[in-house]
Amino acid sequence: MRPALQLLLLCHFGLFVSVTPQNVCQRPPAQDGSELSGGHFFFEPGTEIMLSCSQGYTPKGGSRSIVCKSNGQWTERTLKCSRKKCPVPDQLQNGKLNFEDITYESIITFSCNEGYILHGAESSECMHTARWSHVFPECKPVTCGLPDIPAYAKIVYDRAIKGNITEFGFGGTYECRPPMVLEGNKRATCGADGVWTRPPVCKLVTCPAPSSLDNGFLSFADQREYGYKERVRYGCNDPFVLDGPSETECQETGLWSRKPVCRASCKVNIERGRILYKGQKIWIEDFKPNQVQHSEQVAVYCLDKERDCGFPAETHCIDGQLEIPGCFEEPSELKYQLRAGTLPSEIRMCS
């Protein structure tokens, strides 16, 4: 038994010495994306091995081979391997992509904007196959039912809808049936929480009986309260004319809209001469009735003495007041009767 035990010890010692001498190269470690395939751990000097790119990496130049040198070191490692790239992701509609790179082992996370819900994976990793691990998700809008409609109101949607489901951001505008008026938010919107904005209420609005009009009248109007949007019509006694709208409307404030005023007409206060009215030259005695309505324009003729020519001088009727321009000189009765052709209205007009 003793000789056999000695032989066994010698064999173990010999095995240890043959595997671990200083001039034997150890298995090269994985480095910069390259590695050695197979299960060998020690290599004799002069042994050439072939490296390859690790999973998820692709060769980018350099030599695959290295050789074990007599000093137990490998020759320089020149194989270049880079991480594989996954396809550039498209923008996530109504959401965001959060990532720093798109190479092997990179991770993208997904998030949705307010009012949208993520349907699908929350993240995706770039795999060694240069493909993303998960199909990118969608951001779908939050949904609401139909909004509540208050009594005496209706809603006008932004666009036509089908069914009873609406989406985040969709909305419409409330309207009350006259004489009711909205009190609250007129706009209705499907919110990010899946709930419609609070609807308004319709309240009754009335205006007091319309007041009378100086020098005018109310046409077919009763002395009573009027509801929102109701109208009354005004008119003026002759020769007065309306200045402003002929109708006034009961507003949602409970007040009437702008009320018109009856304005007086004007008389052209000259006895002799010619005027220009509505594009026509008229002798004052032929101007019948002698009446210019409020805001209308009329002209008398003046003389430019330096150039010996005539020109029309305009004036306006303002609520019964018509001022004759200071340049007008009324001719004497003799000149008007015998020498009318020499009046400023009849001679050459100034250019």
TrEMBL record:
Cystine connections: C25-C68, C112-C139, C207-C250
Main location group: secreted
Record's keyword annotation contains Cytoplasm: no
Signal peptide feature range: 1-21
Cellular compartment(s): Secreted
Keywords: Disulfide bond, Glycoprotein, Heparin-binding, Repeat, Secreted, Signal, Sushi
Keyword Glycoprotein: yes
InterPro entries the UniProt entry points to: Compl-Cell_Adhes-Reg, Sushi/SCR/CCP_sf, Sushi_2, Sushi_SCR_CCP_dom
A Pfam family annotated for this UniProt entry: Sushi_2
Gene Ontology CC annotations of this record: extracellular region
Domain Sushi: 23-83, 84-141, 142-204, 205-264
GO molecular function: heparin binding
Function statement: Binds to various kinds of negatively charged substances such as heparin, phospholipids, and dextran sulfate. May prevent activation of the intrinsic blood coagulation cascade by binding to phospholipids on the surface of damaged cells.
Name of the protein in question: Beta-2-glycoprotein 1
